[in-house]
Design brief:
The chain has four helices and seven strands. The protein is of the alpha+beta class.
């Protein structure tokens, strides 16, 4: 029997782990340099330093003490929140964990009364983009950029939370 994956809040050490693992994974999978890890570390550090427990949350996916993924929800304004830093470990992919983490963000944002949930990603992150599309996010804009040692196309996505619930199963 496969042990159950639990979603929990942040603990001391998680921020360093998330920055480390995302830096390593994106270097291995896409050839991105250390500036990506630095960006993840900055986003995560700002989340902890400015954390507003009433309006923000983070979820760490874990099985038997092993971190398998994470996602963060950050307040932008009283109307808008941003989904940040979604990732799933390679050996945990394909079982719906990315969808589950995304759904947690959407449900939290809806419960808090946000009108819109936004995110930024890159077009080469096909699995993540598929999750966002299935959840009802709409591509708002794209722009080429050179970041993390690569030529990329950044994408801004938005989900209207007042239009009803997402398409992802619970």
């Amino acid at each position: 029997m496969t042990p159950h994956i639990v979603l929990r809040g942040l603990r001391v050490g998680d921020i360093g782990w998330v920055a480390h693992r995302q830096g390593m994974l994106y270097a291995q999978e896409y050839g991105w340099d250390g500036t990506f890890e630095a960006l993840v570390a900055e986003i995560a550090a700002q989340f902890v330093k400015n954390f507003d427990a009433e309006w923000e949350s983070a979820w760490i996916a874990e099985r038997d003490g092993q971190v398998l993924g994470s996602v963060f929800l950050v307040k932008v304004s009283e109307q808008e929140a941003k989904l940040r830093l979604l990732y799933v470990e390679p050996d945990a992919r394909g079982a719906g964990l990315g969808r589950r983490l995304t759904q947690e963000c959407i449900a939290f944002a809806q419960a808090k009364g946000y009108e819109k949930l936004t995110l930024w990603t890159n077009d080469i992150l096909h699995a993540a983009r598929r999750i966002y599309q299935e959840a009802g996010f709409v591509l708002v804009s794209e722009e080429p950029h050179h970041s993390f040692g690569a030529d990329l196309v950044g994408q801004y996505w938005s989900l209207d939370l007042q239009a009803g619930s997402s398409n992802l199963p619970d």
